[in-house]
Amino acid sequence: MTTITADRREVLEKYDRDGYVIFKNVVDSDLIKEVNAHVEWLQAKHPELRGEQLGNTLMPNDPFWVRLVSDDRLLDLAEIFIGPNIALFASHYISKPAFSGQPVLWHQDAAFWPLEPMSVVTLWLAVDHSTPENGCVRVVPGSHKHGVDEMRDNNDVESVLGKEIAVDVKEEDAADMVLAPGDVEVHHPNIVHGSNANTSPNRRCGLTIRYIPTSTRIVTDEPPWPSAFHLRGEPGVNPYQSRPKYVEGSHLPFTGSENWG
Question: Known Pfam families for this protein (predicted)?
């Protein structure tokens, strides 16, 4: 397993206090190059989808995506927060194109997710440099301690979710998650967060990865959930998707693909 260089207790104390933690240089540049190729491959394969909408329903037949979320460096980070028995709940690229990338309005993830209990952690992997100019994630530190508020529709602006939290958010309280490619921001399901539109000349792409302990149940009428994959430790309570096999010519080639599946 990859060594976690940060002090685990300090990390958990910060996470409990603020609702988020940033880890620098988690993923190497070679893998980030493959992630970039994956985003381009997905957009070519699914021209009907905006870059902000490359979501978990595409995962069951995508070996590279499953390989990526299975990376030990990411699982080691997840283990700090949810323990050694790990499954994937969901993963989603939010790739905001230059000049036209949509905002993500203020929200709490826990308001949307069919999980019992709401034991889950999000790892946000930076694929591009993420800055205030190109619409980086913004979080309200400490807001995870105040429960989960209702959501409301917002049709006044075109946004990724089409919804927003039904309470006023003090913009001045928000912190910008400035990240470089390969950095990972980890956040709590109850934290209030969002991001502005990308009006800059630079794309802003990140991959959200939602890990759950295998004791958390995914509540669905049609199991298995599209992105439910058992990744580490005991399998727990959920049915899972089978790991997709790599087929040359059908899937994105990647390092180790010849031995995948």
Answer: PhyH
